[in-house]
Amino acid sequence: MKFQDEYRDRELVQGLAAAIADEARQLPEPVRLMEVCGTHTMAIAQFGLKSLLPEQVKLVSGPGCPVCVTPVSYIDHAIALSGLPDTVITTFGDLLRVPGSHSSLMAERAKGADVRIVYSALDAVKVAADQPPKQVIFLGVGFETTTPTVAAAILSAQQQGLTNFSVLTSHKTMPGPMQALSADPELKIRGYLCPAHVSTVIGSDAYLPLAEKFGIPCVVTGFEPADVLQGVLMLVRQCCAGQARVENQYRRAVTQQGNVKAQELIRDLFKPVDAVWRGLGVLPGSGLVLREPYAAFDAARRFQVELPDANEPAGCRCGEVLTGQIAPADCPLFGTVCSPETPVGACMVSSEGSCAAAWRYGQ
């Protein structure tokens, strides 16, 4: 049965690839389509989907990896906090090895800082509950997918009366960066494969302004090879017809309105602010910080630390990779001084980074 399922999947993928090639013949010019989701980036690389596309259709990676778009200044801030006495830094594993201006959380842990990997924000709350003498800081990095879980953790800490738990926030929102990319005429993005995980929260209607204002087709798609190729086919068909609509290929998980309760949780605890994105600079209203009633859980407000001038790693072109200007292999550091064992940039560190995907799957 498993072999039969795999055979049917292979037939479906081949059929979709053939349909894309057939439709692409009607394109007046080649098109650049962008996926804006780190999981899509990994799936596309793992299954070699770019090799199935005709020359008229080019798929490029965008700023869909939350660790990758987090600026060096945030890592510097986390490192500075790790140096405070009786402080525990809790974080997802990817952030541990991201280089700051002069060090990394992994290097600081090797020097004696208490830096621990957790699998959820609620795990960090438990650490705080179990060790009341310690100040436990959770590194809140992510898009709308993870923000509600951090909000829930803060509410849990509040209900427990914990005064030793806080969050260093670097939450960001879509589709703000997609609007910035769309407004750049040099990038010539003709369609988006919209982030699937994020879309389960914000809903497919969140991309309507992109289609309406910039005339760029958008398709929310799943993660299987057939999902991605069907999304590409839907985009190519819109391009051929001169249309710009929002379509939802991933209807088994994404609705038009999204998860309203999760959206309310985000709005209740967080407010929009301008935020720095690696490769894109400051994007108005694209970040989230805790509202005043929850200021006691904001590590940036609670703890004053001295921060160095933020410096990106010399020679790293991660910002250009994140905006689709270059492919990972176009960076002179890729595969030489920058590898998963000795990463120079965040795009090589993160499990969803474009450079990590290209390295792992031999592109």
Rounded radius of gyration (Å)? 21 Å
Uncertain runs are: 1-5
Order of helices and strands: HEHEHHEHEHEHEHEHHEHEHEEHHHH
Q: How much of the polypeptide forms β-strand, as a percent range?
A: 15-25%
* Terminal CA distance: 32 Å
Regarding quaternary structure, how should these chains be classified? Answer: single chain
CATH topology category name of the largest domain? Rossmann fold
Shape: globular
Output the CATH class name of the largest domain.
Alpha Beta
* Total E-strand runs: 11
Strand order of the largest sheet: 4-3-5-6-11-10
CATH architecture of the largest domain: 3-Layer(aba) Sandwich
Q: What is the SS-derived class?
A: alpha/beta
Largest sheet: 6 strands, mixed
Q: Number of domains in the coordinates?
A: 3
What does this 3D model show about the protein?
- The structure is a single chain.
- With 363 residues, the protein is of the alpha/beta class.
- It folds into 3 domains: 7-62 and 176-240, HypD, alpha/beta domain 1 (Rossmann fold, 3-Layer(aba) Sandwich), CATH 3.40.50; 67-174 and 258-302, Rossmann fold (3-Layer(aba) Sandwich); 318-360, no CATH class.
- It is 40% helix and 18% strand.
- The longest helix has 23 residues, at 2-24.
